[in-house]
Structure formats: structure tokens, C-alpha cells
Amino acid sequence: MSDVPACRFCRAPLTHDLVDLGLQPLSNSYLTEAQFRAGTERAYPLHARVCDRCFLVQADDAVPADAIFDADYAYFSSYSTSWLEHCRAYAEKAVKRFGLGPDSLVVEVASNDGYLLQYFAQAGVPVLGIEPTANTAEAARAKGVPTEVTFFNEATAKALAAKGVRADLMHGANVLAHVPDIGDFVAGFRHVLKPGGVLSFEFPHLLRMIEKVQFDTIYHEHFSYLSLVAVERVLAANGLRAYDVEELWTHGGSLRLYCAHADAPFAETEALNGVRAAERAAGLDRIEGYAGFARRTAEVRDGFLAYLAEARGAGRKIAAYGAAAKGNTFLNYAGVGPEDIVAVFDRNPHKQGKRLPGSHIPILAPEKIAEVRPDDVLILPWNLKDEIMAQLAFVRDWGGRFVTAAPDVEIHP
Ligand SMILES: [Zn+2]
Predict the structure, then answer these.
(1) For residue 225, how far is its CA from the centre of ligand 1 (angstroms)?
(2) For residues 284 and 275, what is the distance between their CA atoms, to the nearest angstrom?
(3) Distance, CA 68 to ligand 1 centroid (Å)?
(4) Which of 54-63, 156-165, 198-207, 265-274 shows the lowest mean pLDDT across its residues?
(5) SS3 sequence, 341-353?
(6) Whole-prediction pTM value?
(7) What is the CA(42)–ligand 1 centre distance, in A?
(8) 108 contacts: CB under 8 Å, gap ≥ 6
């Protein structure tokens, strides 16, 4: 076996590291007490590299696909209120901007439990969800969102097109980064999209990850870390192109990219040229632009460990909030466990009573915070920190503080 993997898009050898985060378990593999006691948890290399030909940043293919998409897949996107509001607002705007109505069709790829398409359906626009996990598709159908259970790629897209599926708007939120073969995935869209149709993708913006040292957004289920420069190459290879972009606050800074068939008459916007210029200024179109990320990642970890040593030395009881994937990368790279952080609170009932992968910190319902009475609450999903601090304001009643850890440790008394 060769030590140098090939780029998952252009197949060039990946000779440049972004960061090596060591051996880590799958970030969504929460452990039951029985699994924890059995001690059979598996860990895989978590290593991100950058391609010097197409600039796709990507994690090594270290995990068998069936280990990632297992039956216990416990993620339902409908749990965050701010995310649902983001989706409702997008649907409302898209219906107006693209003149969607009863004769249109909106297709979402990775439609989950219908969290987004429900808003188009409520506006009287026909919808179709494409979702690989059967239990989430079932939840979508219960909301009145017709859903096909399949992995989207060029072959399944052709099968949909053969059945007459033609979309006016196609959308993919946080899915582009989650597909192992990004080229085959993007190739599917041109078969289902009408000639004048619009394709929108939302993805966390690599530029923000690099600027803010958001290494905790790297985990095995997240295969690619996307810049506009890389995505435009993938689109061009598949007869598609971007023409507009919006910068969003979601996931610490995302792009919503509007795309169309290469020959469709959409003019490129100033906003698109603005993001291209910002990426050039940051060096994302040159291999040198990626140097230094590994060192800055180690500095974030060291800053967090120094805070932890000081807080524990002062006798403070530390807990965390938010048992999301990114928290697991952070905690496992820092090498902490229940002796450092006594519990993590999370609203998702599917996670409560289990333990975090790797760090083995127990997950409790937020109702238990008043019993545990932590002195410090480490907010792991830092992108939701304002929402979480508002929900947990009562922690300050006993002198508790909130802490966020990247790009620097910040204490919010
Ligand atoms: Zn490449």
C-alpha cells in the first residue's frame, strides 16, 4: 500500500499535509454503557491533506463506509431552533427569487427528516427529498415530504431523470463535504436540473476554518473542506458553474453557492468575485497558503490544556455543553477524559445516557446541569455560543462561567 493517497477529485498524489489529528474514533459513534465496558471501540487515523493541483482539502479515506453510515445514525437536523429558522428563511427567499409555484419542483439531496423541504411544501411547491438513511426518510414522509431512499450520485441521478424527475431548484446543505467521491456526486446534478434551473450548495467555508483555526470541524464523516477555488473546479468538470454566493454565519462561516448549467444565462455577481478575491488574498490558490495550520492547531490545544490545568488546580468543576461531532475531535485531540470534564449536556435524547467516543465523557440531559452545578461550562459547538449562553444563563446564578476554546480560550463570566 502506498503511503501517499490520491486526491479524491483529481487523483493527483497528496504530498502536502494540512494537519494530522492522530487516531480518533468516529465522531458520531456514541457509546452505550455496555459498549463502553466492552472496550471494543475502534480508532482510525484522522489526517487532512491538501491537493497541490486542485486545492481540495480532504481527510484520508481511513474508515469503511458501512462503519460511518450505520443503523444507529442518530443525527436529526431538526433539533436546533436557529438552524430551522435559517432553513425557513431560505425557503421563503428562494420561492420569491426563483418564482417557484405549484408547477415547480424542489429537490433536496440529503434531505434528512424533511427539515427544509417542509417549508417549500407548506408554500405549495412540490418537493422531493433524496436521503440515504431509511429512518430519517420515514420521519420526512410523516411530515408530508416525499422522499427517495438512495445515495445520490451520477447513476442514481440518471435513474431519477429516467423517471421524469426534473428540478427547478436543487439544494444540498452540508452534504458536499460528506460524500467520499465529490466528482461522482456533483456529476448527478446536471441530469436532474432543468436547463434554466438553479442549484444551491451550502458548505462550511475553508477560508473561515483556516482563519479561525477551526480544526474541530475535521472529522471522519467530513471528507472534504471546501474553498470556492476547489468547488469551481469540480463544477467545471461536470458542465456546471457558480454565478452567485452568499456568506452565512452557519457552522462558523459558510458559503451558499448558486450554480447553474455552464451554458445557462446567469451573470456572475460581484459577491462571487469578492469571495474569489478573498480566497486569493488568503493564498488558497497556492500551496503555501496552507502552511502553518498544523502549528496553529497545536497552539489552540496547548492553550486549552493550560486553561484546564489552571481551572482544575483552582478546584473548579468543569462540564461541557453540546455532544456534537466537532466537540469530539477537539476533546480527543486534546486527550481529555471524564477526570477533566465531568459530563457533557446535550438536548438530543438519542445521545443522553451514552458516552462520547474517545473521551468517554458521560452525556446527560440539560435538566441535570443544576444538579451537577459546574463552575465552568465549556461550549463545544462554539458557532452556537450565543444561543447556548442565553439558554443556560441560570448557570451564572451559582457563579458559573462559560468557556470557548478556539481560536483562543475565552472565558465569558
Ligand atoms: Zn486534486
Answers:
(1) 12
(2) 11
(3) 23
(4) 54-63
(5) CCCEECCCCCCCC
(6) 0.90
(7) 29
(8) 116, 117, 127, 128, 129, 130, 170, 171, 172, 173
